[in-house]
Design brief:
It is a single chain. By secondary structure, the chain is an alpha/beta fold. The protein has helices at residues 12-20, 25-34, 50-61, 96-104, 144-150, 177-183, 185-188, 223-228, 248-258, 264-267, and strands at residues 44-47, 69-70, 75-77, 90-93, 108-112, 116-117, 123-124, 127-128, 136-137, 153-157, 193-198, 201-204, 213-217. The strands form four sheets. Strands 1-5-10-11-12-13 form a six-stranded mixed beta sheet, with helices on both faces. The termini are far apart.
C-alpha cells in the first residue's frame, strides 16, 4: 500500500493564511495538550476529547513520530488522518486484551476528562453528590483507577471553574497522589500524573506533597483569573509564563491537516 504524506495536503497559499491568522485559545490548548506526549517514544496515545485527539495527532506529526494512534476501536493506524476522518493505513490489530496489556505495562499515556478534580489529582467521573444518593449520575469510574495506577495520565478540562477544580471530589475515579500514598506501595509504584490542561492554563503536581501547581497561563488569561476559577489554594510560582506559542508549521498542521473543519473551536471558544 502506498503511503501519502498527510502534511502535503495544503498548498502554499493556504499555509500562508494559516500562519497569519491569530492564534486562538483553542489552539493554545492543542499545543499544551500535545506537549504531554513530547518525546514519548513508542507508546500508545489515548486522547479522550476533541482537543486531545488533535493534540496527539499533532505530536505524532512533529516531536513524537513514534507515538502509536488507534482508530478509536481495535486498529492501530499507520497514518494521521484528520480528526473524524477514516484512516487509510492499518498498521496492526489491537484487541482489547492487548490494549489492557499495554495499560498494565505502562506503555500508554491517556489524557482523560474530569467532572471534578482536586489539588492532588483525584478525578471524579462517576457521580455528583453522595454516592448512595447522588444529585447526578455520571459515567461511573470506567477504567480510571487502573489507568491512574498503571500508566501515565494527564487530564483535559475544557471549562475551568470551581465546579470542576474542587477542594475534594465527591467520589474518586482516577487516583490522586494523596490517595495513592494512603494505599501504599502497590498504588504508588507506577502512579504518574503528568499534567492538567484547561482552557485557562497548564498545571502539574510539582508542589509540596504533589499538590497541583500552575505551570503556565494561556495568552489572554491572568493568574488571578485562574485563582478565582479554582476551588482550592493553587500553588503558584512568582513568575508564571505564558503557554508557548505554536510554530508556523504547527499552526498549518492544526488548521489544514489535523482539524480542517475547526472542531477545536467548538470545544473552546475564543
Amino acid at each position: 500500500m502506498t503511503r501519502t504524506d498527510p502534511t502535503a495536503a495544503a498548498g502554499a497559499s493556504e499555509a500562508t493564511a494559516a500562519v497569519t491568522a491569530p492564534v486562538t485559545r483553542a489552539e493554545y490548548c492543542v499545543i499544551a495538550c500535545a506537549e504531554a506526549w513530547r518525546d514519548a517514544g513508542e507508546i500508545l496515545a489515548s486522547p479522550m476529547g476533541t482537543i486531545p485527539s488533535i493534540a496527539a495527532r499533532l505530536a505524532k506529526l512533529t516531536f513524537s513520530p513514534d507515538l502509536l494512534l488507534t482508530d478509536g476501536e481495535a486498529l492501530l493506524i499507520g497514518d494521521v488522518p484528520a480528526v473524524g476522518a477514516p484512516s487509510a493505513v492499518t498498521e496492526g490489530w489491537l484487541p482489547y486484551r492487548k490494549h489492557l496489556t499495554m495499560v498494565m505495562g505502562g506503555r500508554r499515556h491517556v489524557m482523560m476528562g474530569a467532572s471534578q478534580i482536586d489539588r492532588f489529582g483525584n478525578q471524579n467521573i462517576s457521580c455528583i453528590g453522595d454516592w448512595e444518593r447522588p444529585k447526578r449520575q455520571l459515567l461511573g469510574v470506567r477504567g480510571a483507577p487502573v489507568n491512574t495506577l498503571n500508566n501515565p495520565v494527564s487530564y483535559w478540562i475544557p471549562r475551568h471553574s470551581k465546579r470542576v477544580f474542587v477542594e475534594k471530589v465527591d467520589m474518586i475515579s482516577g487516583v490522586g497522589y494523596d490517595s495513592a500514598a494512603a494505599a501504599g506501595p502497590s498504588a504508588t509504584r507506577f502512579h504518574d500524573l503528568r499534567r492538567v490542561v484547561s482552557d485557562l492554563g497548564v498545571f502539574d503536581f510539582g508542589a509540596a506533597d504533589h499538590a497541583m501547581r500552575l505551570v503556565s497561563v494561556h495568552p489572554g488569561v491572568t493568574v488571578e483569573q485562574v485563582r478565582e476559577s479554582t476551588g482550592f489554594t493553587l500553588a503558584t510560582p512568582d513568575d508564571v509564563p505564558y503557554t508557548r506559542e505554536p510554530t508556523a508549521e504547527e499552526l498549518r498542521l492544526i488548521r489544514d491537516v489535523v482539524d480542517p473543519r475547526g472542531l477545536r473551536e467548538r470545544e473552546v471558544r475564543s
